[in-house]
Amino acid sequence: MAEARNVLGGKLEICSLSPRTGFFRTGTCVTGPEDTGTHVICAQVTAEFLAFTRARGNDLTTPAPEFGFPGLKPGDRWCLCALRWREALAAGVAPPVVLAATHEAALKFVSLADLKRHALDEA
Hints:
The protein has 3 helices and 2 strands. The chain is of the alpha+beta class.
């Protein structure tokens, strides 16, 4: 299997081990055919984004221990669905992203320019 790449063309970095994120809970935003939500954008969630996504039916703040999900608080890093991040961008509440930890598959849904405008790390 080829090494996962980030949106800058480098090796995909870890997004978060605490809480442990990623569709496969590896700490990275790797994806695969099973990941129908395409959880590939490493974001540092904000209170505004968490309220936005809860209003859209995806509550990321309430723990779900049965799924190993601790619930998120502002400042946590999490692999977000590319389409939800794009929705948040259009609504003006897109959380900042970590480019080095955002999987290149994100570029199928959002532009590198938009990601760079919201980047926490240097491009």
